[in-house]
Amino acid sequence: MAALAGIASAMVGAGVGELTAGFVAASSSPFAVVGGALIDAAPAWAKDTAIAWFGTADKAALLVGIGVVLIAAAALAGLCEARWRRSGVIAFVVIGAGAAGLALTRPDAGMLAWLPALAAGAGGGWALHLLVGILPWRPAPDAAAHADLPTRRRFLAWAGGAAVLGVALAVAGSVARAGTAVVASVRDALSLPHPATPAPSPPAGAALDVPGLAPLITPNSDFYRIDTALVVPTVDPASWRLRIHGMVEEEVELTWDELLALPLIETTVTLSCVSNEVGGDLIGNAVWLGYPIRELLARARPADDADMVLSTSADGFTAGTPLEALTDDRDALLAIGMNGEPLPLAHGFPVRMVVPGLYGYVSATKWVADLEVTRFDRARAYWTDRGWSERGPIKLQSRIDVPRAGRGIDAGDAVIAGVAWQPHAGISGVEVQIDDGDWQRAELATAISDDTWVQWRMPWRAASGDHRIRCRAIGGDGETQTEVSAPPAPDGATGWHEIAVRVS
Lesser CB count within 10 Å: N end or C end of the chain? Predict the structure, then answer.
């Protein structure tokens, strides 16, 4: 019961912390602070494992893990408080103070970033002091006093009430996140300017009519999200600024209104995460609206020996992009729109980077606020500091979407279909092998451009039994996708996608 008192007290403390963060800043939530510190401190293998196991649910898994550890620590604090009075309370306050100190080290820490964690520790300690004080089995100085102790049922009611209070406070904290609500309302009311250069309509034959095949354009709600932000940064467009500096002849600063006034362009680009396993779904294709980064860099006039641009997000994340990828003829954008809408908050609103041909960890900085022109031998970015390669070109890949791996189908006429991609290089063909037979050429849909994935399909007369199907793509330059299997680290997965299918 002492352990239960500790757990209920931790829920009160967590609720107090979330409520305080709701008024101070969502990013200073104790869970966000501790989680962010763990993300920063975790070795590369731990991050890779989390993404491989949980995919886009990696952040939820981390928060659940933090919650489990908190419950265990709180139970221990309850036991200590029952045996040695004030020891558990001191433990709560110390943990809160430690989290408050971590909050001040975060890149987006405000003046009151320390307050939510300290309030959480104090609130949890106060609740623990009260609950342990009414434990029905605590030793009493005399029999009369013992007879007046609360019953076990009453203690459980108090502990349950404390837990409910903690949940209610946390919910209230979510409601009170005024900054998030304001930015969300600004985004919802925003009308995007018409592009000076609209994206061309997808050509005839670009989308194949195959049930189960990934759509040509990925809806915003289905677009993968991999980043290091436990709490989505809320950046008010009115206060957004982009600074371009470093190895340049002239620094450039851009405001939101100035960005909207520029001649924006639309382009369709496929983005892929370097953590995407062969056959994985950490990839999406969208229509982006923005301004070419090369035009802004032309204003700044980079030094001749510069070769990298270090981009920094509002939450402190950094990415190092080859300068040539931002100045050549590809449509590398400061994007403000996605599939005809303002960027979703979770995908970088108000402004993010989109660079065709490069994995997101070196190019697709969300909530971007700073571009420093520099060199690879002078600056390091978040993921390259953790062992990933510096330049990150997207590798030639293909995937089977239909039939689904491990699912049975009926014998007879069937279809094998999927997508293939190598942004900025293009796809010239896809081949399919059934069991150990000859490679057969699949029908390739018409690509929107070399910067997008392309759908493919092949008819199949499916015979009863167990079959293995694999695919490989042929790049626009004639390169054939390699059979050599390699994990995502350090520069992207390779190998042929292979599935097992039972036909009955």
Answer: C
